[in-house]
Amino acid sequence: xxxxxxxxxxxxxxxxxxxxxxxxxxxxxxxxxxxxxxxxxxxxxxxxxxxxxxxxxxxxxxxxxxxxxxxxxxxxxxxxxxxxxxxxxxxxxxxxxxxxxxxxxxxxxxxxxxxxxxxxxxxxxxxxxxxxxxxxxxxxxxxxxxxxxxxxxxxxxxxxxxxxxxxxxxxxxxxxxxxxxxxxxxxxxxxxxxxxxxxxxxxxxxxxxxxxxxxxxxxxxxxxxxxxxxxxxxxxxxxxxxxxxxxxxxxxxxxxxxxxxxxxxxxxxxxxxxxxxxxxxxxxxxxxxx
Amino acid sequence: xxxxxxxxxxxxxxxxxxxxxxxxxxxxxxxxxxxxxxxxxxxxxxxxxxxxxxxxxxxxxxxxxxxxxxxxxxxxxxxxxxxxxxxxxxxxxxxxxxxxxxxxxxxxxxxxxxxxxxxxxxxxxxxxxxx
Lengths: 290, 131
Fold this sequence. Notes:
Chain B: InterPro entries: ATP_synth_F1_dsu/esu, ATP_synth_F1_dsu/esu_N, ATPsynth_dsu/esu_N. The complex is a heterodimer. Chain A has helices at about 5-60, 70, 95-110, 125-135, 150-165, 215-290; strands at about 80-85, 115-120, 135-140, 170-180, 185-190, 190-195, 210. By secondary structure, chain A is of the alpha/beta class. Chain A is elongated, with a radius of gyration of 28 Å. In chain B, strand 1 and strand 2 form a beta hairpin. The interface of A and B includes residues 38, 55, 212 and 225 of A.
């Protein structure tokens, strides 16, 4: 049976925790809004890029000189997984959900006899994957110093990945991140980004474009950019998802702390009354004995 | 008078979306102007000025590259980086120039010409900015 003093201390400590989680929730809410705005602002570019790539892909289909980024290396042996997670914890199941999806993919690829390589963006994902797949990690991108994800950051990651592709280090690349649906729902996804897959274009495409320079040159210029944009979009979605996940996790934590305080208060009052009753009985018993 | 819808977007934000009379763009194979009814056209861009003419005045932006998609009624400019000309600074251009020069030094023989072109474009832009 804890003493009254112990209980009082517990209550105070839980109250402090509640203050912290409450503050974190509010900070996350503010950051979420900014992250959402950034994701929103980047959308027009990504959409147009996708449209242009689809147009070009349709035009370059079957061309023997199309860049390998589009046609693939012709092999399917080595897969690179680019796993984007957050730098910081305390955001519920956000990182675990992404890592779980990546793990499933790794198991599936390994079962099919493929070689798997992993590049992680964000510390949390690396920490979780290192335990089981330490030997597969080929690189890590540190984003600790990045306050707001810029296109430059994504470009750097893309350049690294594209350099490895050009050097023949892998044949297929998958990108893992979390799509922001709402504050309470973030969905981890793992699309293929290399070779670039163009969305199927409807045949109602208007008159053919003229290209300057030719299709292949534009494709060669465009595809690396479209990969960078995919990564950029992923990082932005991730940033928004992370804040969303943190917000709901901290909201839960705040509520749990409140419940705990209620329970402890009840226990505290009960013990206090029990102590008073005991004291009274002692006094009365003493008085009667006289 | 017919107008042409011009969108200028960079990965981070949308800079302009206006109904314009015409747009001048620094295409890879030379400057070109898109007027309403232009033939469908796709070109990569080199560093230079994108000018959007609307209602008798021109809005100018400096882009570091990217590509433009022109159709009969719309132009989409997808710029790698874009800055309104008024906010363009010498430091920004200097930095881009030194990047381009480093790229030229590192470029393989086959890519030398393209890299040199890039350096040249930035030099021109710097001169124009200084003037």
